[in-house]
Amino acid sequence: MALRSLNNALPDAIQRPKKVAKVSAIPLDKASSPGSVENMNPTLLPNAADQSSEYIVSEDLKPLGDPEARVKTLREELASKNWIEVCGALNDVRRLALHHSSLLQPILEQVMKIIEKSMKNPRSALCKTAIMTSADIFHSFGHLLMSMSDQTMILDNLLLQLLLKASQDKRFVCEEAAKVLEKMAESIPRLPLVNKLQPYVSHSNLRVRAKAGTAISKIVSNMSYIEMKDFGIPNLLQIAAELLNDRLPEAREASRSIICSIYREISQVTDTKEDNGDGAAVAVLWRDLCASILPPNRAHSVEKIVFL
């Protein structure tokens, strides 16, 4: 069979060059128009938070030039809907707390409510600034806040927010909150502070329980036997026993720390003549103490921690 000629085959499709879109330069008279990048709202630009907020450590906060005038405008700025403006106002609250505390004291309660509200804000920059502000407030007004808390829930509410923020996943926020919780004991009396923290050991949020337990354990580790006795050694043992079986390792570690701190102080006040240097008297006293305060299963678990 003769082969068919291929000369009449259709030619390959001709590929036409694609049109290239022309990019024209923005005229100079339009470069400054309301829709241009230069005139866009900075809060809509990427990384605006990083560019507009700054985290100043307490040591670098300088006194205000005219603190009396600043106090008059402070509340209005703290109530602003512009979060960057609120951050600036909170930094001035910190300056007032550290260098002009007498001027801040009359409006302290209102300021504390705004700090609590700012901690709840989803903007991490504002939240962290509020946490840093609370640290300076505690530093300057620790004893006063404790007396205020007898009349209002202001300290309790702030404490809960710190525990929640210390429990969240945003690292630079949770680390700052944890730092504040640790430093609170330096400014606020220990025993009332442990009283405030104790209810959160039973909180429904397991991370809050762990953070509360850690905060208590660090306070207890610096207590003397007299302080423990004043607070109530049975109360401390019950806190430790509750945390010992918690799901989070952090809570269990806090429990062990509390137990060892109590045992350390009991050992130091036990009569060395009765002890004969072998620790037998302390061990008996410790066993009897746990058995008299806790249910049998918990008493045994707590008792053996110090001998592990």
Automatic annotation (TrEMBL):
Residues 60-296 form the TOG domain. GO terms for molecular function: microtubule binding. GO terms for cellular component: cytoplasmic microtubule. Transmembrane segments: none annotated. One of its GO terms (biological process) is microtubule cytoskeleton organization. InterPro entries: ARM-like, ARM-type_fold, TOG. It comes from the Eukaryota. This is TOG domain-containing protein. The lineage of its organism: Eukaryota, Viridiplantae, Streptophyta, Embryophyta, Tracheophyta.
